[in-house]
Amino acid sequence: xxxxxxxxxxxxxxxxxxxxxxxxxxxxxxxxxxxxxxxxxxxxxxxxxxxxxxxxxxxxxxxxxxxxxxxxxxxxxxxxxxxxxxxxxxxxxxxxxxxxxxxxxxxxxxxxxxxxxxxxxxxxxxxxxxxxxxxxxxxxxxxxxxxxxxxxxxxxxxxxxxxxxxxxxxxxxxxxxxxxxxxxxxxxxxxxxxxxxxxxxxxxxxxxxxxxxxxxxxxxxxxxxxxxxxxxxxxxxxxxxxxxxxxxxxxxxxxxxxxxxxxxxxxxxxxxxxxxxxxxxxxxxxxxxxxxxxxxxxxxxxxxxxxxxxxxxxxxxxxxxxxxxxxxxxxxxxxxxxxxxxxxxxxxxxxxxxxxxxxxxxxxxxxxxxxxxxxxxxxxxxxxxxxxxxxxxxxxxxxxxxxxxxxxxxxxxxxxxxxxxxxxxxxxxxxxxxxxxxxxxxxxxxxxxxxxxxxxxxxxxxxxxxxxxxxxxxxxxxxxxxxxxxxxxxxxxxxxxxxxxxxxxxxxxxxxxxxxxxxxxxxxxxxxxxxxxxxxxxxxxxxxxxxxxxxxxxxxxxxxxxxxxxxxxxxxxxxxxxxxxxxxxxxxxxxxxxxxxxx
Length: 599
Ligand code: GTP
Ligand code: SPV
Ligand code: MN
Known about the structure:
Layout: H1 18-31, E1 35-38, H2 43-55, E2 60-61, E3 71-73, E4 87-89, H3 94-97, E5 102-103, H4 106-117, E6 125-133, E7 142-148, H5 151-160, E8 162-163, H6 165-171, E9 179-184, E10 194-198, E11 203-207, H7 212-215, H8 218-234, E12 237-239, E13 242-247, E14 253-259, H9 266-270, E15 282-287, E16 291-295, E17 301-304, E18 309-313, H10 323-328, E19 334-336, E20 339-340, E21 346-347, E22 359-360, E23 366-367, E24 381-385, E25 402-410, E26 420-422, H11 426-434, E27 437-439, E28 451-453, H12 466-475, E29 485-489, H13 509-519, E30 526-527, E31 532-533, H14 548-555, H15 559-575, H16 582-598
Helix pairs in contact: 2-5, 11-16, 15-16
The protein binds guanosine-5'-triphosphate, sulfopyruvate (SPV) and manganese (II) ion (MN).
Manganese (II) ion (MN) binds next to loops.
GO molecular function, one term: manganese ion binding
Domain Phosphoenolpyruvate carboxykinase C-terminal P-loop: 236-588
Subcellular location: Cytoplasm
């Protein structure tokens, strides 16, 4: 099947790029669709595809008075999250993918998936979705094209990325520099589900899933897995980080990037509303999930958010916990696997107000409060445009990015890790990132609540050898001559009864304020073996209605716990083999020796 150059509604060519046309032809030859639709990103196209998706029962309209432009999608119950065991990095050697990734030989992977793709779109439509990750025209941005058989994917990609004509224009008539993504939902059978990345070919093949991170190929697949590989090659960083601006009452702006693992609070932190005590302080969202960072001419690290929308966790989102998210998802939003009320509103566990007496649950079944199952899936998500966000930073689309003054790492840890500490230097900061641990969440299939090492929140997303990735972070010090300060936080420490010690959410502003003041060298700190922590009185706790000894418990450092913690890194470090940087191993040994010296 040879593909002719697509035209827009006025008959003008959308692209004449031969590299793109040739690849689309090849993929059409493989998947054998009945017709090919090139997406231009227009409103007319959105309306047409939305109507089609409704007619095909892929999405259903919600109450358009309450939730204008909002739709509900129910995925196959076997297809509700990322599947790490079916995600592969297909590099020429296994060592390049490293011990933390599943690996397939590229030739074998193309063959195996090629068989699944062969004729997979017979009798159906193939959508060609050109998109940009990053602001149009930025030297930090990348063009991708996703071929998919799923209207749900097209409608989501349209929200999550700058999609359509704008991307073809950026690609231009001759460039061959674009990510080639191929997706087919197939029969949504976990036995025939594979998400394969070919970093050397700038190619992604995903088959057998219709869910978020598995199929919106610009997001985790390109912006993180392939992105991290490109970052290593080209000297920049692709990270699982939110980006926010903190504005002081005087109008001083400080930008912070923070890596928390999946479902550990990035969206919430990026949209936080400071408590009353912080009158005049304001948080501006640049991004809620992914940061691409490069060193600027001034030696500072500059970050852009490659995405254009939010694919956020619905359960737990409320006017109490995250009012900005609630406003963001009040229109033009696709909800996936949430519950539906009789009047066409959405509901999930942790939403404001009383639990409705009657619902249709995420599987499409009748539900009442007596039901033993959850009404919304714990990894139910919303897809909403960034431009809906009331606290969207005016620099979210700035091709130059924003200068980062602080990097924060944080996991979900019931013990050991204090509320906040600051690394002494870059090495110490990279050590924080490399040794991050977190309890697993519903964002990926598998057991929930088990502590695992999730370095830099990138365990599921690093597209190459993890030891080399650590080395890349260490090496960046030579080019970042004006580096951000590095911090570790933990909102999730619990008391002996299993209750969170720290109220979290908006109250995290108290910690962020200390971070900003430390980054600007204007507040004291107390030295510990592991980093600087706030001195008594440095954390502003005024108006916080929890006992101060509870805060003491949240901020405490217990050397016994830390000894066990550091000893537990040994196995992980060893598993990374020769690629594990010696500087980080020595740092661990030094900390253990210093604990011994003082106890
Ligand atoms: P991904 O989109 O999966 O990468 O997740 P994310 O890091 O953006 O997570 P998100 O902000 O959606 O938070 C997910 C879960 O963490 C929700 O259940 C929140 O209620 C909970 N959470 C967020 N912030 C806090 C906090 O400060 N304290 C506590 N206790 N829970 C929080
Ligand atoms: C995550 O799991 O970190 C997400 C959701 O942000 S998904 O896009 O499905 O990976
Ligand atoms: Mn994420």
